[in-house]
Specification:
Elements (H helix, E strand, L loop, with lengths): L1 H13 L6 E4 L19 E11 L4 E14 L4 H28 L4 E14 L2 E15 L12
Parallel strand pairs: 1-2
Antiparallel strand pairs: 2-3, 3-5, 4-5
Helix pairs in contact: 1-2
Length: 151
């Protein structure tokens, strides 16, 4: 269930009509000053399943973190400001596209907190990373379906 939802989130972000990279998170930003990111893959959105919480016998809330990263290679204040505005627009598009994409799959999305977790010079340039938390509720009807695929 989390794997399919994570793939749905990745598909939604990949469908945005911009030149961004999107994939699962594997600790690439554990040290943001030295991110493990490929050249040419910024802006980058990393999707991380962080846990679930039972809401009832038949519902579970899944929580994901999105790490939205972009870089400015220039010290110029105007250039850095332009990059900052681009990432804010990207955040808006991500919220919209993921919400609509998951709604098409009968899953409502609740946007959680958004906060900047890094904004400084890094090995890649002037890197900014935002973290957006997403929550979605899924049906968990294991007691109704005893097929091997649902165990």
């Amino acid at each position: 269930m989390p794997i399919q939802t994570q793939e749905d989130i990745i598909d939604a972000i990949a469908g945005i009509d911009t030149n961004i990279s999107v994939r699962r998170y594997y600790g690439e930003l554990s040290d943001p000053a030295r991110p493990v990111l490929g050249d040419g893959e910024l802006p980058l959105v990393l999707v991380d399943f962080v846990g679930d919480k039972a809401r009832s016998v038949s519902e579970v809330q899944l929580t994901f973190n999105l790490y939205i990263s972009h870089v400015s290679l220039s010290k110029n204040r105007d250039t850095r400001q332009k990059k900052h505005e681009e990432v804010l627009e990207l955040l808006h598009l991500i919220d919209k596209h993921v919400s609509l994409h998951l709604a098409d799959r009968s899953s409502l999305l609740q946007l959680g907190s958004l906060k900047k977790i890094f904004d400084a010079k890094s090995d890649k340039g002037y890197l900014t990373v935002y973290m957006r938390q997403l929550h979605t509720v899924k049906q968990r009807n294991y007691h109704l379906d005893r097929s091997p695929n649902n165990l």
